């Protein structure tokens, strides 16, 4: 009886060992689950937009839609309180050379907005130049816009019917590098920012900003002919103290946002 019990126990142990071996071999062949990685989903197209000579009716030439574009600024009131905000009523996308820095007797764009190009897939072929007329800063408060803003920003009052692109009244940007942002669909832009402000002569600083491309789309308004649109949004920041602005009503850092809309009408 004892012998039978020992044999039974031995058989049981052999069966258990065999099951463990089979189970271990089975698990070795199981592929471990893949751990999901979270990261940005970046999609880029191949759109290329160029201004040409801005010929009306030529759908291959893109035009700045100034009426639906804007250049905004914001900074903290007295450096610590809520935001002061405004916009520039007059601006353009033109590389203003020295010979073009003058007063223009016109109510429209004094220079063609043709100093830009955009290549979605190859940012080395993207560039743009732009300017604002500093005395055209508009906060919605006439007393401030025609008063302390003029003196505080080192410029001159508006002359009705005149577009003032003189050295005293113009701030300019010019890109020196445009690269892919590896973490989003945006682009990282390095640009030269040139402004006289309260200084004796203009100062140029290299500033890094961010460019967002709003993809091309087809639109139709009412019964009019359909046309295409796209947008470029540039954001950057500069220190106004570097440019001789001493007013304590605003903070050192000023944020700029340029929202440029284009069409091919």
Describe the structure.
The protein is mainly beta. The chain has a single domain, classed as Lipid/polyisoprenoid-binding, YceI-like (Lipocalin, Beta Barrel). The protein is 14% helix and 37% strand. The protein is built from three helices and 15 strands. Strands 1, 2, 3, 4, 5, 7, 8, 9, 11, 12, 13, 14 and 15 form a 13-stranded antiparallel sheet that branches. A two-stranded antiparallel ribbon has the order 6-10. The chain starts with a helix and ends with a strand.
Concise description?
This protein is mainly beta and 265 residues long. The protein has helices at residues 2-28, 142-145, 148-152, and strands at 48-49, 63-64, 70-76, 83-88, 91-92, 103-104, 116-119, 127-133, 137-138, 163-164, 170-180, 187-195, 203-219, 227-239, 253-263.
């Amino acid at each position: 009886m004892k012998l039978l019990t020992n044999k039974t126990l031995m058989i049981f142990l052999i069966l258990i060992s065999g099951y463990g071996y089979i189970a271990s071999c089975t698990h070795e062949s199981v592929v471990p689950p893949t751990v999901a990685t979270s990261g940005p989903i970046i999609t880029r197209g191949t759109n290329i937009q160029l201004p040409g000579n801005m010929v009306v009716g030529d759908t291959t030439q893109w035009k700045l839609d100034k009426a639906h574009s804007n250049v905004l600024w914001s900074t903290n009131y007295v450096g610590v309180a809520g935001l002061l905000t405004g916009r520039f009523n007059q601006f353009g996308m033109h590389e203003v050379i020295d010979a073009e820095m003058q007063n223009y007797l016109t109510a429209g764009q004094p220079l063609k907005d043709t100093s830009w190009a955009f290549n979605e897939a190859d940012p080395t072929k993207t560039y743009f130049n732009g300017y604002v007329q500093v005395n055209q800063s508009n906060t919605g408060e006439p007393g401030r816009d025609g008063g302390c803003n003029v003196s505080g920003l080192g410029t001159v009052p508006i002359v009705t019917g005149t577009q003032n692109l003189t050295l005293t009244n113009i701030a300019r940007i010019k890109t020196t590098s445009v690269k892919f942002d590896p973490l989003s669909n945006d682009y990282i832009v390095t640009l030269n920012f040139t402004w006289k402000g309260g200084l004796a002569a203009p100062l140029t600083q290299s500033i890094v900003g961010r460019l967002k491309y709003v993809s091309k789309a087809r639109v139709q308004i009412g019964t009019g002919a359909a046309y295409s649109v796209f947008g470029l949004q540039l954001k950057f920041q500069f220190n106004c103290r570097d440019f001789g602005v001493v007013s304590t009503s605003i903070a050192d850092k000023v944020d700029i946002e340029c929202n440029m809309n284009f069409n091919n009408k």
